[in-house]
Structures are given as structure tokens and as C-alpha cells.
Amino acid sequence: MNKEIFVKLLEQRQYKAVRSILDVMNEVDIASLLTELNDRDLAIAFRLIPKDKAAEVFANTDGSLQAKLVAVFSETELRELVDDLYMDDTVDILEELPANLVNRILDTVSPSDRALINQLLNYPEDSAGSIMTTEYVDIRESMTVAQTMAHIKETGIHKETIYTCYVTDRRKLIGIVSAKDLMTTDDDVLIRDLMETEIISVSTHTDREEVAKLFTKYDFLALPVLDTDGRMVGIVTFDDAMDVMVEEATEDITKMAAMNPSEKSYFETSVLGHARNRIPWLLILMFTSIITGTIITKYEDAFAAIPLLVSFIPMLMDTGGNCGSQSSTLIIRGLALSQIRFRDIFKVVFKEFRISLVVGSVLAVTNGIRIMIQYQDINLAIVIALSLIGTVIAAKLVGCMLPLFASKAHLDPAIMASPLITTLVDIFSILIYFNVATILFQL
Amino acid sequence: MNKEIFVKLLEQRQYKAVRSILDVMNEVDIASLLTELNDRDLAIAFRLIPKDKAAEVFANTDGSLQAKLVAVFSETELRELVDDLYMDDTVDILEELPANLVNRILDTVSPSDRALINQLLNYPEDSAGSIMTTEYVDIRESMTVAQTMAHIKETGIHKETIYTCYVTDRRKLIGIVSAKDLMTTDDDVLIRDLMETEIISVSTHTDREEVAKLFTKYDFLALPVLDTDGRMVGIVTFDDAMDVMVEEATEDITKMAAMNPSEKSYFETSVLGHARNRIPWLLILMFTSIITGTIITKYEDAFAAIPLLVSFIPMLMDTGGNCGSQSSTLIIRGLALSQIRFRDIFKVVFKEFRISLVVGSVLAVTNGIRIMIQYQDINLAIVIALSLIGTVIAAKLVGCMLPLFASKAHLDPAIMASPLITTLVDIFSILIYFNVATILFQL
């Protein structure tokens, strides 16, 4: 939808046309259109959205827009909106809103809903409890397929998903029936005879990353969440799991570039916010690389005698850093996808050792030829070639081992990525280089 | 399931017990159990899997295991297996199998299926066509809800998903009805009055990454795929989209660490395979950093006069590299999630400039104090402080601009990550450093 046309229609009060447009638009697209309107147009446009879409549009807008809308809504409008929102979306919205607006919303809901919302707000931030919804189809094993279908017809419209029905007995989960099974089975079959009893579930305190991994592994549409007493309290749906996957990948990538992850997007984070996320690691890495500098001063005599030696420092340091990050990146990703485990450490180290022999030799020969052509100095070529092979081996071994040790120590392996590896490998490459040079040039 | 117990039961020919175990296990878990068996046990175990699970277990095992099984299957077994497999899984499997086994499978299917499989095998590797399935629920707008439900009961069991039904008219897609709508609507309502006509679809040639993005954006369960003439030819389901998301994130992370991405996992890739993926970028970056080395030789007089200058090279180079990768990483991720676009370039550059002033000042002051304490040399402190600020600004600007230019030039921004940025920023940091030093120390 073209924004200009939409705004023009709004300003000309062509509300019927606006309503027709909103009628055919997807909720996600309406939400992104709303972000481009000014405050007055926004309130009018939102009230013109067809009632059955309004809640989903609202859930898809960002925090600042939601705050604006809640501030102008009447109490009746608020009550209607919250009624139509799924419980997990309500909680997500409340987590973002300023306190006075949170109270406005909590005042409109029933006491039982208020208790439930407060409970959901109390689950740890990255837990299954914090992303679950409490609206699911709850059935008994003594029901028939026809009775279940009738039950769904009656209550299903308010459930986030009806494609998995949960068979409970005194709040304990005893079975699962998919809508596909219901729709392709005869009416008089008992749920007891249809339900699957091999159930994979999570607890309210399971880390949301673990939850997302289960979704990718088993291709679930929804996953039941049990409390510490094993009673069913909610479900996590696949759309929330997909969001978690994207957020977790962003978090890992951010950490791998030596920054503290932020929940906000690039433009939502302020200049000072960005600086705060970036400075701590830069300081740590800066002081680590001072060690490398200090080591270099120990070899002052060497490069005073052969100043050309200094010019190879960047090449050796960069190659070492790159080799190290290649290995650490593959290991970090393999750990994240559960393809590599700590017990594989010897296999990994042996593999990286062989890879570094191949890689190191290719780089050494290429560079050796380059130096022979440029300087016609066989000793220099040998020094650089040997240093390169040593650096590549050291870099790959450090690069593959540190993330594995981090995982063993229950640290996030992602912090053992390029920047830290690079700085550590620098020390090795400088030591190898100047020692080889000192010996071969008899300095 | 404990592997040892399972193998023992197999060897003792306790097939009834084995079958009971397989009966309650999840398909994905059975598949991973099979990978641990030897060839003889494998064939026996597979034949003991309940018939309604066999196809899904098969689809969840890896290529080498599938090849082993296909090789030992009788023609009847093969035909039954392929009948039960969804079309997209069959195609995935055929893409991995050696040619003689592909022919064995193609011989068992009907001529029309064979034509379809061959067509699916011909779609470009990363296209929607290559990941779609051709089994979906196809209905007419003149049907009622009850007729549709009856149609699903009859044909649904063989469809990969029945939760979205597609209303077509002479193969053109005219509407969509969800199973939720069907299950919560009265029997005599016409599909025409129930269907949604605002349809988001992709073409057979749409890049699979684009397809995955649509799933994350709109939370779809399935997405219709149209051919170039606008006729409906298949659907992509959310589980395939999730797999694509994980694969694409891995691909980006791999590229960002200066490696060619591989479709195989870490252990599946051979030593030479790893070396081949890593060497090209290492060579390119090595030769780029030789430029930095050459620049250093131009300042031989400077560090011959003050050898201490050399010891600050690693710190400046590392800090520049780290600052540059921080910026480039955030921009690359923002581009991948469509949160940042090329048209934002001025906003980004201005933001990074302000961030680099803050970050640069903090690093400069910290380091200045350190140098004053260690060397009591105010000139040296000023040289390093100024060089740090200059390096941070240059690094952040290069780091944020290169991925944006890459996206504009339709290159993958992920290649503009840490390693390349680091090597380029090195040149800036060395030039800034030695020029500041030459001026301030009047060398």
C-alpha cells in the first residue's frame, strides 16, 4: 500500500475507502504502515481497522507505537483490545509499556486474568514461561472425535492454535492429538485410542534457546509447557520459536564481534547505548594487545639490525588472526547447532592440526616465492615460511580449543570468537616469528 | 533410548521388544539411533519400524544411511517407502543419492510421479521450487465447509499439511482457507464466503532466503508457490523454512569469518575440504596485509629513531580491526534482517561517527593515562591518543560503509566482515599512526 495515497485518503476523511484498503491488507503490513503515520492519523487509522484484525495489528506494532495508542484509547476500547489479544502477546506488550499505561491495561482485565498476567510477567526473561501462551485446547481422553470437534468449534476461535489438542487428566498432560488426526479420523473414535502418548515437553524454566532447538529438531507446531509439579500450564507456538531463533543468532553474531548484545535494533539503540555495548571488550582487547607490544620491545635489537623484519608483522598477525577466527567460528556454530560437543575435543584438535598443515604449507610456499622474487633473500623466505606455518598451527589450535573449553565451563562459546582469538594469537605469532628470525639470522 | 540395550535386544532377536520400543519413540530420535547401528542391525531395525513411521524416519536420516538402506531394499519395499514420502522429501533424498540408486527409485514410481520428480529436481538449487512440496489440499470456491471437511478426510492423510487449503479456479489460486476457519465455521457456509483473498505467494524461482524471511515476517504455516504463468504448483511448509533460516545463518557466519560456506557439517567435511574453503580468503587477505607491511617500511627512519613506536603497532591494529568488525557486524546483521537499507547510509555514517568519537575518546584517555604512568612521556601519550581516535573513526566508517556498498552492488554484505575490514583498517591505522608520530616527534 502506498503511504502517500493512504494519508491523503485519511486527510480527506474518505474513511470508507480507508476501511476497504485495511480490509484487504495483511495485519503485518498494516502494522508497518501505521509506523509511518503521525499521531493524529494513527489514532484514526487504528480505529478504522476491521475489528477482527485490530488485535493482531496491535501485537505487530512496536513498543513506542503501542504506548501512543494505549494512551489515547478509551477504557472500552482497551478492554476490547485486551480481550482479543492472545495472552503471550499481552504479556510481551506489558513488558515494553511504561508503568502508568501498564496499570491502565491491568485495570480493564478480570481479576483472574490479572493474576495470570502477573504470573507470566514473573517468569525469568529467557525462559519458556516468558514466551508461552495459556490459551490451548484442553480435552479429555474419554471424549470422541466428534465431541472434540464440537468443543473446538465452541472454544477454538479464542485459542492461539487449535492444531494440537492436549489431553489432560487432573491437569497432568497424558496425550496429544493433532487436528490432522481429528480431521482424518471417524467421528466415533475415542481420543484415548487416537492420542499420542510419547510427549516431548518443556518446563516453565527451560531456556528459550533450548525450546527453539526442539522446534527445529522435531518440526513441532507447538510444544507443551509444564510447571515444576508436572502440570500443564501453557504452550509455546512455532512463530515465537522462530523469533527466538532469529534473536539468538543475532545475539551470537553480536558477541562474536566483541559487543554486548542488545535487544533493540541498530537504529533504536542510542549513540551512548552503542558506545556502552562496544567499549568494555575494546578495553579488554586493547590491554591484551599491549602484551604483544611489550613482547616486541624485547626484540628491539633484531629489528634494529634488520628493519625489514617489522614490515612482516601485520601480515603474520592478520593471517594468524584470520586462521584462528576461521576455526573458532566453525566450532562455535557447531556447538550452537549441537553438531559438536566437548567430548569431540581430540577429534577436533587432530582435524584442525591436519588442516593447519595443509593451509600453512600453501601460504608458506606462496609467500616464500613472493619474497624470493621481491628480495632474492632465501633466508628471509625461510624465516617467513616457517613463521607462517607455526602461526597457522598455533592459531587453529587456539581457535578450536577455546570455544570448546568455554562450553565445558558453561560460558557462552560465542565470546571466544575472532577478536579474543586474534589478540591471543598475536602473542604466539610474534613469539614464533622473532624466535625463528633470531635463530636463522643469528641475531 | 539407550543404544546398548537396543543393540542387545536386536542381537538376541527380541524383535517384539524392539518393535514396542520403536512404537513409542519419536521419528527424529529413531533416525538418530539408526546412525549408531552397524549395517546388518540397521537393515533389521529399519524393517521393524511401524509402517506409519518408516517414511518419516527415513526422511530424517542422513544421505549415507539412506544410500545403505536403498541398496538393500527390495523393489516392493522401495515402492512402499516412496509412496509414503512427501514429494519434497523424495526430491531431497534423490539429490543426495548416487546415480544408480536414484535410478532404482525412479523405476519404482509411476510415470506421472517420475515426470514431477524430474521437474522438481530441475529447479535452481536455492529456489522456492527446490524446497516446495506438491501435495496440498486443493478445493473449489463453490464447496461448502462440510464438503471441504469430507474432502480433507478422504485425501488429507497424504498431504504434508492440511492446515491451509488452497482455493483454485483453473489452476489459478483465488483464495485461502485455514483449517481453523473450517473447524470453527458452520457446515453449510460456502468456501467463497469464508476464504481470504489477500494472498501472499512466491514464485518457483524466488530465492529460498526470501521465502524464509516471509515466514518470519508473517508467521505462516505454509506459503503457496506459483509458476511463471501464475498457476499454483506447490507449497513451502514452515519446517523447511526453519531449516533454511538455520542454514542461511550458518552460511553468513561462515562467510563473515572469511571462509567459503559448506553445506556439510564440520565433521562431514574432509581435511582437504576444510583447507579448500579456507585458503582462498587467507591468500587474498595475506596479500592485502603485505600492503600494510610495505607502508611500514616507508617509516623505517621513524622507528629506527624511536624503536618503542613499533611496540604500539599490534595495539593500534587490533583496536582498529575490532572497532571495524563491531560496526560491520551490526550493519551486516541489520541488512540481513531488513532493519537497515542502503538508503539509510547517511544516517548510519553519522551515527557511527558519533559513536566513534565517544569510543575513541574513552580508549584514548585510558591509554594516555597508562602511557603516562609507564613511560612518563607526554608526547608519546598524545601520539597514541590521537592515533587511537583517528583509527577508531576510520575503522567505524569503513566498517559501516563497506557492507552497505556491497548490498547496493548486489554482493553478499557478509563478505565485508571482520577479516576484510581488519586488513583494510590496518592500512589506515598505520598511516595515521606514523604520520601523527612523524609530525609530533618532528622525525
UniProtKB/TrEMBL annotation, chains A, B:
Coiled-coil parts of chain: none
Keywords: CBS domain, Cell membrane, Magnesium, Membrane, Metal-binding, Transmembrane, Transmembrane helix, Transport
Keyword Transferase included in the entry's annotation: no
Bilayer-crossing regions: 279-296, 379-405, 417-441
Domain CBS: 132-194, 195-251
Keyword Metal-binding: yes
PROSITE patterns with a match to the protein in the record: CBS (PS51371)
Protein's membrane topology: Multi-pass membrane protein
Stored InterPro entries: CBS_dom, CBS_dom_sf, Mg_transptr_MgtE_intracell_dom, MgtE_N_sf, MgtE_transporter, SLC41_membr_dom, SLC41_membr_dom_sf
CDD domains recorded: CBS_pair_Mg_transporter
Alphabetical list of Pfam families matching this protein: CBS, MgtE, MgtE_N
Assembly notes: Homodimer.
Protein family (similarity comment): Belongs to the SLC41A transporter family.
General function of this protein: Acts as a magnesium transporter.
PANTHER family listed in its UniProt record: MAGNESIUM TRANSPORTER MGTE
Name this polypeptide is given: Magnesium transporter MgtE
Gene this protein is translated from: mgtE
